[in-house]
Amino acid sequence: MTMKKPSRVLRLRDFPGIGPIAIFGIVFLYIPIIITTIYAFNDGDSALIWRGFSVRWFGEVAQNANLLSAVWVSLQIAVVATTGATIFAILFALAVDRLRSKFSGLTTAILTAPLVIPEIVLAVATLGFIRMIGLTPGMLALILAHTSFCIPFALMPVRARLKGLGTDYFEAATDLGASSWQLFRRVTLPLLTPGIISGAILAFVISLDDFIISNFLSAAGATPLPVFLFSLIRRGASPAVNVVATLLLVLAIVVTTITFLQSQRRSKQNA
């Protein structure tokens, strides 16, 4: 009987040049974020010239009515778009799962096409369509556009989770006499929860971060935060921009941490 040789463990040194490239990529990605966070506490009036430590720009941001209005607009759009995109993604994933594989692949490809279409093309097309149906740039147009292009991002984790589940759970529930509503509420929805949460977070971040489509569809009184920050930078780099970036970074860290802890707790409960 021949003994099977253990597989060789690959190390980073087995791939010459990969280590320095990885280090350069990490430095290039995170050093600007660290610098932006540090300069949020700059006492000077320039975002790029250090004049001493101060938190006065946090107070300036808290008292800037226009900036707070832009934050509120972005949060409203992101929440509504995320809710609509996530609900649609759940329903679409469950519906397309019952189609034959040929039609399933076709419909999914059509719905996820915005992932590969340049965003400037989507922005121009969306603006043209909005004008065609009689709407004008503003809050409603922004919500419709954000909901539309957030759907693929909410759909991917849900579909991946649904495919990974197989059919055993659903067949067992059906054999035990569960109705369609009971199957959805007590089996499907709880099992899809990790994918739903991941998709919703991804859609929320994408909506909050979008600039190109938002810039095409924004209007007076409905200016999202990225568009407002861009106009702020054009008038001169201010530490207020660094403060907003830092606060958004903290928000992202908090949301990611909470999601990770919930995922860990759920894994321990299922173990």
From TrEMBL:
Residue ranges that the Swiss-Prot or TrEMBL entry lists as coiled coil: none
InterPro entries (UniProt xref): Bact_Polyamine_Transport, MetI-like, MetI-like_sf
Location(s), subcellular: Cell inner membrane; Cell membrane
The protein, known as: Spermidine/putrescine transport system permease protein PotC
Family membership: Belongs to the binding-protein-dependent transport system permease family. CysTW subfamily.
Predominant place of localization: membrane
SUPFAM superfamilies assigned: MetI-like
Function: Required for the activity of the bacterial periplasmic transport system of putrescine and spermidine.
Membrane topology: Multi-pass membrane protein
Keyword list, A-Z: Cell inner membrane, Cell membrane, Membrane, Transmembrane, Transmembrane helix, Transport
Organism ancestry: Bacteria, Bacillati, Actinomycetota, Actinomycetes, Micrococcales
Organism: Leucobacter denitrificans
Gene Ontology biological process terms, A to Z: transmembrane transport
